[in-house]
Fold each of these.
Amino acid sequence: MHIQVFDNELQAGQAAATLIAAQILNNPESVLGFATGSTPLPAYQELVRLTQNGILDWSRITTFNLDEYVGIPADHEQSYRAFMMKNLFDKVNIKPEAVHVPNGVAEDPEEECLAYERAIRQTCGIDLQLLGLGRNGHIGFNEPDTAFTTLTHVVDLTDDTIDANARFFEKSSDVPRQAMSMGIGTIMQAKKIVMIVTGASKARAVRSMVCNPVDPNCPGSVIQLHANTVVLLDRPAATALNYC
Ligand code: F6R
């Protein structure tokens, strides 16, 4: 695992965008895994800028997002698909059919997860997976104590995650209680992992992820076992690393 600390979240995001841009330039048919949340926004802004400057071509790129809320339709403003359209896909020349996000209102969510996993396998696999980290150490919506072998599955969100995501909804009771998420096994099959973690509220999770032995109680720690991982931190997220 390679760890890089930047002065601020903008630089960490721009560094992630640089790695994603390099992936697209090296292989214009790349399969990219994306994350939602606040953390990747600076990276998406930079990718949009590079695209609008004529540097990146998304016409042969395929994407798979990590997760989606159960019960939230694609056109709901808090759906993860809507987030991705607004912040990235509507601003680059990706083909609509090349964008994959689990269908939050699928009749059978379990079957939707199986189909999503199959769709990933029908490509040559994810070349580069972008990740954030939850305050409780989650990756995707794989909450503490998720088995490392899990594939895309339906997840019950923890109170901590519901609380962290309440800022996007009018009231916390509006936050969905379940999500569909790539599993830890799915994420670990990506050929390269780029994780961005920013902000002081993540410092403890970063410490557990990096300094402690690999432990399902901190799902992010599994990336210690991945052969090609870069972790991009801002200074506040890296503060607890001094005591490693
Ligand atoms: C989002 C996701 C989550 C977030 C994590 C951090 O698709 O899978 O694991 O990466 O919850 O969220 P933010 O960036 O909002 O702090």
Note: The first strand starts at residue 2 and ends at 6.
Amino acid sequence: MRTQVGIVGAGPAGLMLSHMLHLEGIESVIIERASREHVQSRLRAGVLEHGTVDMLKELGLGERISTLGLEQHAIDFRFGGESHRLDFHQATNGRRTWVYPQHEVVTDLMKARMQAGAQILFETSVTRIEGLQTRKPTIHFEQGGEPRELQCDFIVGCDGFRGVCRDAIPDSVLKIYDRVYPFGWLGILAEAPAPTNEITWGCHEDGFAMLSIRSPSVTRLYLQCEPNEDADRWSDGRIWAELHKRLDVPGMPPVNEGKITQKGVTAMRSFLAEPMQYGRLFLAGDAAHIVPPTGAKGLNSSMADVKVLGRGLVEQYKRGVADILDRYSQICLKRMWLVQRFSAGLCTMVHQIPGDNAFVRRLQRADLDYMTGTVAGRLAFSENFTGLPIEI
Ligand code: RFL
């Protein structure tokens, strides 16, 4: 088999890149380990940045977002027993975010790709990639128990944090930056209307909590917990009691209880691999970086990478100009370190960190006061949360 761009992974990054290339007449093949149903039903991210939504709309994928997406203008930070509403729409002169679940983004992308006759090999595992410093890099995979090969001009690793592509970059070249946080999130989906349309963050002395509307009848809720917490130790009663304690404040509608339909624990990690390219291999999305979910940057960062890479590949194929491709890692890393800074900073500001003393806790409180109570603090949060520009 042969193609122009071989893509490993049909998550949001892989599907979006394949879609962008198709619109410019560039051929790609995606190889995906999981089934199509599995890929489309994975419940993950929910907040889309301004730039991500613009990108989806520009590429003809905006129809369902326009009707199902819930536009967000503010976050309600709750601490000290009070509500502190941070209006990022106002602070940035009109920038906003959308609540539109990741599985809906994937569904839109999958539909567009399938309608265009995309070549996606599902339930097919890539075992290794090689020849990255040659003009004919190769993807090795297994199909029906048989070893096969796909020869490409370029390989793009969109295979997530636990994929195989990053490992193909020699240890002497690859530098890893990693931080694992000493807490996790117990996440639930509940059949209950959210008490407000706005995302609510509870920064409580017993731990962080978050509430986000998913649809008029479904709420997504998170509670800070131990990093390796057993979700079964949390009865429904215990979950609702903690959510009320950490999120409810006088004068605001309390958390609405309902049937819990999904429950799971997410670990918190900051991770970055440098460089994001090696010879004819490019890494995009979670394959290159992970952020704690506090800043809602994971999916959005995957889209930002793909925007740069898509443009670089188009320049290369259409005009023979390699400038963007050559600088891909440099362009993405500059923005990604700013995203890491924001996500890690927010993560340590709002969680209770085991072992921290009273002084650190008062500093956390001062950070929250500054962020919500000053013009500069509100603006800094707002421009980061709604999405930093991509300088190509
Ligand atoms: P993905 O989605 O992990 O897709 C990688 C794909 O590669 C496939 N694969 C392979 N295929 C073939 N051969 C192999 N050897 C393979 N190895 C792996 C996998 O099956 C998979 O289909 O990476 P991508 O495309 O970079 O997308 C990244 C996003 O999924 C991720 O960043 C977000 O979900 C993170 N995230 C959030 N991001 C946001 O922007 N906003 C949020 O509000 C937000 N909330 C979250 C999140 C992630 C969470 N979890 C579960 C990690 C909330 C949670 C709980």
Note: The mean pLDDT is 96.
